[in-house]
Amino acid sequence: MKIFSSKGLVLLALLSGLLLGGCGTLSKAKKNQALDLRLREYAHEVRWGALEALPSYLEADKLSEQPPIADDPQNIRVTEYEVLRPPMPGSDENQITQTIKIDYLFRDRQ
């Protein structure tokens, strides 16, 4: 007793492929949303002066190479945050690169 005809099997295979492809697209969309959210969080931290939180955006192995932001991060006031190049895919699928320009001044030297 046949449950599916040969045409039915072909249709089932095509639908399975489409569904699995759709799942991959959905997963990639969620990952892109998460990376975009991370960029917006970074911009918010910079714009509102929470500079002591910025090292948390670095990879652990690069954290030791990074010099401290300042002796007193509260002494820095960000005056401008400008995106020079929009987010681009990075070297792996979990990385994006964006070029920004940050203008700032020291409050005690204003």
Name the features:
single chain; 110 residues; alpha+beta; two-stranded antiparallel ribbon; 2 helices; 2 strands
> What is the total number of structural domains?
1
If helices are DSSP runs of H or I spanning 4 or more residues, what is the number of helices? Answer: 2
Instruction: Using the CA coordinates, give the radius of gyration.
Output: 23 Å
End-to-end span in angstroms? 87 Å
Strand order of the largest sheet: 1-2
Helical residue percent band: 40-55%
Q: What structural class do the secondary elements suggest?
A: alpha+beta
Number of E-type strands: 2
Strand content: 15-25%
Low-confidence parts: none
Mean pLDDT: 77
What's the topology here?
Blueprint lengths: L5 H42 L12 H4 L12 E14 L6 E11 L4
Antiparallel strand pairs: 1-2
In short:
The protein has two helices and two strands.
Structure description:
The chain is α+β, with helices and mostly antiparallel strands and 110 residues long. The protein has helices at 6-47, 60-63; strands at 76-89, 96-106. The chain has one domain (6-109). It is built from 2 helices and 2 strands. The longest helix has 42 residues, at 6-47.
